[in-house]
């Protein structure tokens, strides 16, 4: 593109007016992968700066006569130069050069465009592609080579582009599943300066893979995203990776940050925080308050504050007003969460002093660019989904209205007059699945086998309280039918509507238990083997270590491999008040735990299992033999089959729960049947540490997931049977031979720990010529209960069981 050089308004640099006049923003956007649809004089498409499914990105002619863009979803906006700045992560000057603008040539301080280095004219990242990798070599205080695309562009030689960097801080950016995305390094420079490059593992045009300075793709990921589990409702947001790491380690809260500092906030994918309670903790300086709370009204590129962007996502906002605390001396500029030295209690005190009330976030009224109104097709309007944080739609948001997704609307069914067919199943499903006011509202909980409303439905407008996901109720169906008739003119039949909702829900299913377990990342510290001794107060032994590991792996196996065989039950013994139930509840979590079940021989018990990971069976010591046998039968079932109330079909659900028994022992044996006792893993507990379990719960399960995925089994191995049987037999109703043999063992066992069968026969006054295999088996069982087993290869000599 040939452009005549001329002065801009500053008298130096690029002539931006010429660039904007001669460069089509819609063409540039399309060339960079934005699929645009023509809508009157405007263009509509999916925003390249954040993740979305419904187009909210618009290109329009502003009052200055040039094309501009604006995204209603993330607030990104500007002209063609801003677009390249945001998309490529380059400076204003580099963006102008990429667009082919010419620089002023008669000012000595500014080189002629012909003398500009290649890096100022071309995209220095062209041909470089990120490559996934599991780990990285960067460590604090150690030198590592790092590729610099800018140096490569300037020298024309990739080998000259490597410089070593010695990071003082290393921050891993990971996705929600814990996979490595990239890094932000901090390197200290002379004069107290620092640099914080974004780094990714990339493939160069010559095929080599290297670690390179490379800007994160927009929208950029949040820092700490792997810690944002689905069940977490409250998040603390701080400025800077260092502050995030410090606060998270000190408080064990879910703390997040973002890359790029205050100027990078508008390039972040905030969607994972949708509907969350967010506590903003800005740095104690003007840029920090502007980025989080007030925005920036600078003329060329106004910035929306983070609070407003989150408000659009239905977040409830509070912020930490650090000035509310009585400090012994004035706080320095830039004071942040990393400057505090506190424990968890001190943090809670600070929050009570400095945390504001919930804020209602109003939209900014200033329109950074005046936009011409969009020409829309005459569609029947439907009210937008009502968010929990109401906003005042003013300024630019009233000028730019999101268009419906054109793809799904092309597939609607119309009559010969061009009107929507009211009774069309295709139309009903299409609106339920795709219309902005309904899309994403209905989902299916594949763990609980329930259709859920996961976002506030548009017919629930009368409730102003915060919406929590809930199962769909009978009353929702007529309200939904009413809404579809009033908003779209569609009239689905009530009975058909239930099936339509069920279809849409199952196409949008989720599994909270799988999401929880797959979202964990183990820190490498072993905890599983000592679950019972460290957290439930059991005396540590080889037996408790085995049971701890097998129990945790079995729970993960049932969660991730539904219906797998697991016919055993952990029994926690301990006095009343030992907090056995509280400990198990804390380990599995409130959402996945239950201590109530109907008659185990009824279909109700099978229905109640759904959505439960752990079921506690209490007071097992008081069970009759019949009740104990019923529990054992229920425990061995791998699949639940039942017909829900008003259901049309029988549901077959591979079981995902396990059972844990609790007992207040009175000294009497409680296992009634010696044969069935093998299904129970009894452990004595004392002083269960619920609070410690709550702190370490995620790491306990993270380790268990790793053990399961590594192929560890969850059933007792042959070499472990003797330890288990000794514990089971100690709780089994006695044999009249037990006392006699116990006395004989005490008297006749050798100091080396051996006992002869002939001594047992003599103690029982059993004539040797009348003894049968039944007698020998009975003797062996009693001795096993007393802690003795046959010596390998022998039929007449017993040895003491170790452990």
UniProtKB/TrEMBL annotation:
GO biological process per UniProt: DNA replication
InterPro entries, per the entry: DNA_primase_Znf_CHC2, TOPRIM_DnaG/twinkle, VapE-like_dom, Znf_CHC2
Domain Zinc finger CHC2-type: 43-100
Pfam families per the UniProt record, alphabetical: VapE-like_dom, Zn_ribbon_DnaG
GO molecular function: DNA binding; DNA-directed RNA polymerase activity; zinc ion binding
Species of provenance: Cohaesibacter gelatinilyticus
The protein, known as: CHC2 zinc finger
SUPFAM superfamilies per record: DNA primase core, Zinc beta-ribbon
């Amino acid at each position: 593109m040939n452009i005549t050089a001329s002065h801009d308004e500053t008298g130096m640099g690029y002539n931006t007016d010429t660039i904007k006049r001669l460069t089509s923003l819609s063409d540039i956007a399309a060339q960079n992968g934005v699929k645009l649809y023509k809508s009157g004089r405007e263009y509509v498409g999916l925003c390249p700066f954040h993740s979305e499914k419904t187009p909210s990105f618009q290109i329009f002619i502003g009052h200055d006569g040039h094309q501009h863009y604006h995204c209603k979803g993330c607030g990104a906006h500007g002209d063609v130069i801003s677009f390249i700045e945001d998309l490529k992560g380059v400076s204003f000057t580099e963006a102008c050069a990429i667009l082919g603008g010419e620089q002023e040539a008669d000012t000595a301080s500014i080189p002629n465009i012909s003398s500009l280095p290649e890096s100022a004219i071309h995209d220095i990242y062209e041909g470089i592609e990120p490559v996934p990798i599991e780990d990285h070599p960067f460590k604090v205080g150690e030198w590592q080579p790092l590729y610099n695309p800018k140096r490569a562009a300037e020298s024309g030689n990739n080998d000259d582009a490597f410089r070593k960097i010695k990071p003082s801080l290393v921050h891993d950016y990971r996705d929600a599943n814990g996979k490595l995305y990239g890094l932000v390094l901090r390197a200290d420079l002379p004069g107290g300066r620092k640099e914080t490059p974004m780094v990714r593992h990339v493939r160069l045009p010559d095929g080599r893979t290297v670690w390179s300075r490379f800007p994160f793709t927009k929208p950029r990921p949040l820092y700490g995203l792997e810690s944002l589990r689905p069940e977490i409702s409250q998040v603390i947001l701080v400025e800077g990776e260092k502050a995030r790491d410090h606060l998270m380690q000190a408080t064990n809260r879910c703390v997040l940050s973002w890359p790029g500092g205050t100027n990078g906030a508008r390039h972040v994918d905030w969607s994972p925080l949708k509907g969350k309670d967010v506590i903003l903790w800005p740095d104690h300086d003007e840029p920090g308050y502007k980025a989080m709370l007030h925005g920036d009204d600078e003329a060329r590129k106004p910035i929306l504050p983070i609070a407003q962007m989150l408000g659009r996502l239905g977040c409830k906002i509070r912020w930490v007003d650090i000035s509310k605390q009585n400090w012994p001396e004035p706080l320095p500029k830039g004071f942040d969460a990393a400057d505090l030295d506190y424990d968890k209690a001190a943090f809670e005190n600070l929050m009570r002093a400095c945390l504001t009330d919930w804020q209602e976030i109003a939209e900014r009224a200033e329109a950074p660019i005046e936009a011409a109104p969009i020409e829309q097709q005459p569609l029947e309007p439907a009210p937008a989904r009502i968010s929990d944080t109401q906003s005042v739609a003013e300024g630019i948001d009233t000028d730019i209205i999101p268009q419906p997704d054109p793809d799904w609307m092309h597939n609607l069914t119309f009559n010969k007059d061009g009107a929507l067919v009211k009774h069309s199943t295709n139309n009903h499903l299409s609106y339920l699945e795709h219309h902005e006011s309904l899309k994403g509202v209905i989902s299916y909980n594949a763990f609980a086998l329930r259709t859920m409303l996961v976002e506030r439905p548009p017919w629930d407008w009368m409730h102003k309280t915060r919406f929590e996901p809930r199962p769909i109720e009978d009353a929702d169906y007529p309200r939904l039918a009413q809404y579809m008739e009033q908003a779209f003119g569609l009239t689905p039949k009530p009975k058909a509507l239930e099936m339509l909702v069920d279809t849409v829900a199952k196409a949008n299913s989720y599994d909270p238990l799988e999401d929880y377990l797959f979202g964990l990342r183990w820190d490498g510290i072993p905890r599983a083997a000592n679950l019972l001794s460290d957290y439930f107060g059991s005396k540590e032994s080889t037996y408790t270590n085995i049971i701890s590991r097998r129990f945790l792996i079995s729970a993960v196996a049932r969660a991730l491999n539904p219906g797998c065989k697991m016919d055993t039950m952990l029994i926690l013994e301990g006095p009343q008040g030992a907090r056995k139930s509280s400990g198990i509840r804390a380990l599995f979590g409130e959402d996945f735990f239950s201590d109530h079940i109907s008659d185990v021989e009824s279909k109700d018990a099978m229905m109640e299992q759904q959505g439960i990971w752990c079921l506690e069976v209490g007071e097992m010591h008081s069970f009759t033999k019949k009740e104990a046998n019923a529990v054992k039968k229920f425990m061995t079932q791998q699949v639940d089959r039942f017909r829900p109330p008003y259901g049309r079909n029988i549901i077959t659900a591979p079981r995902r729960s396990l059972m844990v028994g609790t007992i207040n022992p009175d000294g009497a044996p409680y296992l009634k049947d010696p044969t069935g006792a093998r299904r129970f893993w009894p452990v004595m507990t004392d002083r269960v540490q619920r609070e410690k379990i709550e702190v370490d719960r995620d790491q306990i399960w993270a380790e268990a997931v790793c053990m399961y995925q590594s192929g560890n089994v969850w059933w007792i191995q042959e070499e472990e049977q003797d330890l288990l049987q000794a514990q089971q037999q100690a709780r089994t109703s006695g044999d009249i031979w037990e006392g006699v043999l116990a006395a004989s063992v005490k008297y006749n066992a050798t100091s080396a720990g051996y006992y002869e069968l002939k001594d047992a026969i003599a103690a029982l006054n059993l004539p040797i010529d009348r003894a049968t295999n039944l007698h020998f088996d009975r003797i062996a069982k009693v001795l096993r209960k007393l802690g003795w087993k046959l010596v390998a290869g022998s039929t007449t000599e017993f040895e003491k069981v170790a452990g």
